[in-house]
Specification:
This protein has 427 residues and is of the alpha+beta class. It is built from nine helices and 18 strands. The strands form four sheets. Strands 5-6-7-3-8-9 form a six-stranded mixed beta sheet, sandwiched between helices. Strands 13, 14, 15, 17 and 18 form a five-stranded antiparallel beta sheet that branches. Strands 10-11-12-16 form a four-stranded antiparallel beta sheet, with no helix packed on it.
């Protein structure tokens, strides 16, 4: 049996969370007088005071993970937010060190974990292609041989000699993926950063990853919340939950296991905290809480077919800025998008003020059949492709039926529709 290209043994990653307690803000006079008094207090007393204002907590993002991946495997890594997927990829990419355990890799590794991975913002697109190639151990001749193919795939020829700090996030990702995929790595690692690109580009990327794996024997690790993408690309899957290994098997076996998971479902009429979800793009602005309701007490405010659905969104901004994309998206459990309620479709822009902002987004009529759905949130600046925040899987909701089901009626399809049937006389 051949030696696996990736071997992980008893891997663990611990972070230390420093929770600062709320402190009283003193006046200048109080600060000076307290400082003088502290000079005459024992050191032990000062240490006790520091411990009262700071509480350190251990958080294990990964725990005792062991697995093997062979050359040419296309492996999807799935799990809910906070499962440890991105932490695993960062360790495999040598971005962060494990706390315990070991990893054995054979060959060159190329990774695309977030917008701008491995790029220097002051260098041009052309210069960054050669820089990334050199990092991967490619010779200048080999990079030049692949250069035209990379530029063609990324579709950034007009901006090749422009510093990449002026690229939109979409252009950034296109070029970064093209470099990572075309410079012949033995292991290609791709996180959900591809969600920033448009649908056509995502399809193009999936095709390229399939090509380098099937035809060239390269290994691909792919993290995504889209089960459609996972099933199209990956022959096998690894499922994680809260840092722990759950299963590693064929994709056809793991995806149903994931979709059938007993996930916590947010209740309508309650605020759901989003502030601590992982994989956030930026801190310039982000979703920190969401509340949803059908506004109908008779169904306990649950969403229902053909009824209204209201979302309240709390957004925290570091500074004032205009945004042209603010969207609530609804997917089925296979992560196929069914609804995209985006202000960009109405040409609307909103101003985010520094600090806390609250918006109401109301869908007048929810044309979904009863079932479980996943809600995602998106936000980007006006006039650019730069995403401020996106959560492909912010929460799950249940759409209920308001029709008595005593006759055993089944619901088929994804959406409801209003229709009529009339008889047309033949003669």
């Amino acid at each position: 049996m051949s030696d696996p290209i990736i071997r992980i043994e008893n891997l663990g990653k611990k972070y230390i969370i420093d929770r600062q307690q709320q402190q009283h803000y003193s006046t200048l006079r109080e600060t000076i007088s307290n400082g003088v008094r502290n000079l005459f207090k024992p050191v032990v007393d000062r240490q006790v005071r520091q411990e009262r204002t700071s509480k350190r907590e251990d958080f294990w993002a990964l725990t005792d993970l062991s697995l093997e991946i062979n050359q040419g495997d296309r492996v999807g890594i799935i799990g809910r937010n906070g499962a440890g997927k991105s932490t695993l990829l960062k360790i495999l990419s040598r971005i962060t060190e494990p706390t315990c355990g070991s990893i054995h890799l054979r060959g060159k590794v190329a990774s695309l974990l977030e917008v701008g991975t491995g790029f220097h913002p002051e260098l041009t697109g052309r210069e960054n292609i050669f820089l990334n190639g050199a990092i991967l151990g490619m010779s200048k001749t080999d990079i030049a041989r692949k250069f035209d193919e990379i530029v063609d795939f990324a579709e950034v020829e007009k901006f090749l000699d422009t510093p990449v700090k002026r690229y939109s996030s979409g252009m950034y990702v296109r070029l970064a993926f093209a470099v990572a995929a075309h410079l012949e790595p033995d292991i290609l690692i791709v996180d959900e950063v591809l969600a920033v690109g448009d649908a056509q580009f995502q399809t193009k990327c999936l095709g390229k990853m399939q090509d380098i794996s099937q035809d060239r024997g390269r290994t691909v690790l792919f993290v995504s919340h889209s089960m459609d993408a996972i099933q199209r690309l990956c022959s096998q899957c690894i499922m994680l939950d809260r840092g722990k290994f759950i299963a590693h098997d064929l994709t056809a076996k793991i995806v149903p296991l994931y979709l059938a998971g007993d996930f916590e479902r947010a209740a309508p009429g309650e605020w759901i905290d989003l502030a601590n979800l992982d994989n956030r793009i930026t801190t310039a602005a982000r979703f920190i809480a969401i509340h949803y309701s059908s506004l109908d007490r008779s169904v306990s405010f649950q969403p229902y077919a053909d009824g209204p659905l209201e979302f309240l969104l709390d957004i925290e901004a570091k500074f004032s800025q205009h945004i042209g994309c603010l969207a609530v998206t609804i997917y089925n459990r296979s992560r196929t998008m069914l609804i995209n309620a985006d202000i960009i479709l109405s040409g609307q822009t909103v101003l985010l003020r520094k600090g806390l902002n609250r918006f109401q987004l109301k869908i007048d009529s929810l044309h979904l059949t009863p079932g479980i759905y996943v809600v995602g949130l998106w936000m980007s600046k006006t006039g650019t492709e730069e995403h401020l925040d996106y959560l492909e899987s912010a929460l799950e909701i249940e759409v209920v039926s308001t029709i008595s089901n005593t006759m055993g009626t089944s619901y088929y399809g994804a959406v409801t529709c209003n229709f009529s049937l009339v008889e047309i006389p033949t003669v």
